[in-house]
Design goal:
Blueprint lengths: L2 H24 L19 E5 L5 E5 L7 H6 L8 E4 L2 E4 L1 E4 L2 E4 L10 E4 L2 E4 L1 H4 L5 E3 L6 E3 L14 E4 L10 E4 L14 E4 L7 E4 L14 E3 L6 E3 L33 H23 L1
Length: 288
């Protein structure tokens, strides 16, 4: 057998094998179950086409290079809930938490998530952020707010964090606590700082009569040490209504019973007059 005959036989065999492969590929489904030359039900805009002489694969058919018949047959609009965007078929709804959301809708209770072309994506510029967070610089994600209200700034002892709970933008302001426990309220000399009912403290009157709590009533005196009202001591001088009778002997019957008056008043006056005259005479004699 000459060389020409061998070459013809080889060429014929190759053509036969190629045709067999092509016929085999034409009858083979794609791996996702899509029939040959049929639109994919799992990927709108795609169809099962030969990739080579040996196998078929899912290929996009909505582009300008795809067969015209398949471009019309597998168009995105032929699939409910899909539209064409940038050369791809994209969904117009999303599913999250068992609920279906239309395109551009914010996911309920899950900011900043939004339904965008079949995907749940962060979009803080539209759907906002959870309480205590704010939009990041990219206007998509969220980041923690800074302030004592959110715990991202510490609240030191002796300070309170004041904020308006109705204003999500209020991060809180540190202010001094009010009360005698923190020295912002000064109790009086007769008061104590009581923290039994209020951690900030409140001034309460000290107990004891030295603090007028209670005040002593008439007939009682305050013991400054014990703080107890005690009955006052009786320091008044007793009044004697009748002097005792005199036992002086020789007292005339019916005379003055007062022992301090032992001499009659006329006799005493006469003795005083005689003494005065004698004294005057003595003085004149000394002067002569």
């Amino acid at each position: 057998m000459d060389r020409d005959m061998v070459g013809k036989i080889f060429t014929f065999g190759f053509v036969v094998l190629t045709l067999v492969s092509m016929l085999g590929a034409a009858t083979t489904d794609c791996t996702d179950g899509t029939k040959y030359y049929a639109c994919s039900s799992k990927q709108p805009g795609y169809a099962c086409l030969p990739e080579s002489t040996l196998r078929n694969t899912i290929q996009k058919v909505i582009g300008p290079d795809a067969p015209a018949a398949l471009r019309t047959k597998c168009a995105c609009s032929n699939f409910p809930g899909y539209v064409e965007l940038n050369g791809e078929c994209v969904k117009t709804t999303c599913t999250s938490g068992g609920q279906t959301y239309n395109n551009f809708a914010c996911v309920q209770g899950s900011p900043p998530n939004q339904c965008l072309w079949g995907q749940i994506l962060a979009n803080s510029s539209v759907c906002g952020c959870p309480t205590g967070q704010k939009a990041s610089l990219n206007n998509k994600d969220c980041e923690n707010r800074i302030g004592c209200r959110w715990g991202t700034l510490p609240t030191p002892s002796g300070k309170d964090c004041k904020f308006n709970s109705n204003n999500a933008e209020d991060d809180g302001t540190l202010v001094s606590k009010q009360g005698c426990a923190w020295g912002t309220v000064t109790c009086q000399w007769n008061e104590d700082c009581d923290t039994s009912k209020n951690v900030n403290g409140s001034c309460k009157l000290k107990t004891g009569c030295q603090y007028n709590n209670p005040m002593c009533t008439s007939g009682f005196t305050c013991n400054q040490v014990s703080g107890v009202c005690e009955k006052s001591a009786d320091t008044s001088v007793p009044v004697v209504s009748t002097l005792p009778s005199s036992n002086t002997t020789g007292q005339a019957s019916g005379g003055n019973s007062n022992p301090l008056c032992c001499c009659p008043l006329p006799a005493a006056g006469a003795a005083a007059a005689v003494s005065l005259v004698s004294y005057q005479k003595l003085r004149r004699k000394e002067e002569e």
